[in-house]
Amino acid sequence: MRPFRFRLQRVLDVSGRVVKARTADLAAAMAREREAARRLAGAQELRRRRLTDLAARQSQGMAPWEWAVYARYLAGLKAEEARLAGELSRRRTETEARREELLERRREQKALEVLRSRAWKVYQAETEREERKILDDLAAGRYARGDNGSPYHGAAREDHDA
User: Fold this and answer.
1) Domain that holds residue 60
2) What is the pLDDT of residues 19-44, one digit of tens each?
3) Which of 38, 94, 114, 151 is the most buried (most CB within 10 A)?
4) In this structure, what DSSP letter does residue 149 have?
5) Residue 113 placed within a domain
6) What are the C-alpha distances in Å from 103 to residues 10, 12, 70, 111, 128?
């Protein structure tokens, strides 16, 4: 009997390695997304604190030049916050793309595993058929020789011939 050999085993092996690589890519993308979210939250918190500082300074009275400096500073913080929000959006899109890619590769791998399972079942059925055929041939040969496998069969025959 021949050993089981799945014709697409190499493809299945490569698929497993691709899934592993895509999983690592997704983890890295998720880490970049978390970092972008952390930076955005930090920028938002800084801008909130500076607005609170500005309100406190305004209540004490500010020179016009101080107001102009604060206004430019806050505009810069707002622009940085918008840039970070855009980066976070891009990171989320990247993460989602990586997730979709991983899911697609997992579906492909699952399909290959199903094919392998089916091939294994076919192999088992063929093997059982071959074994049954061999056993049937052995039994037919013994029957044709008049040997039923009993230890008394030969002794009884010798007594009968005598």
Assistant:
1) 9-104
2) 999 999 999 999 999 999 999 999 99
3) 94
4) S
5) no
6) 20, 16, 49, 12, 37
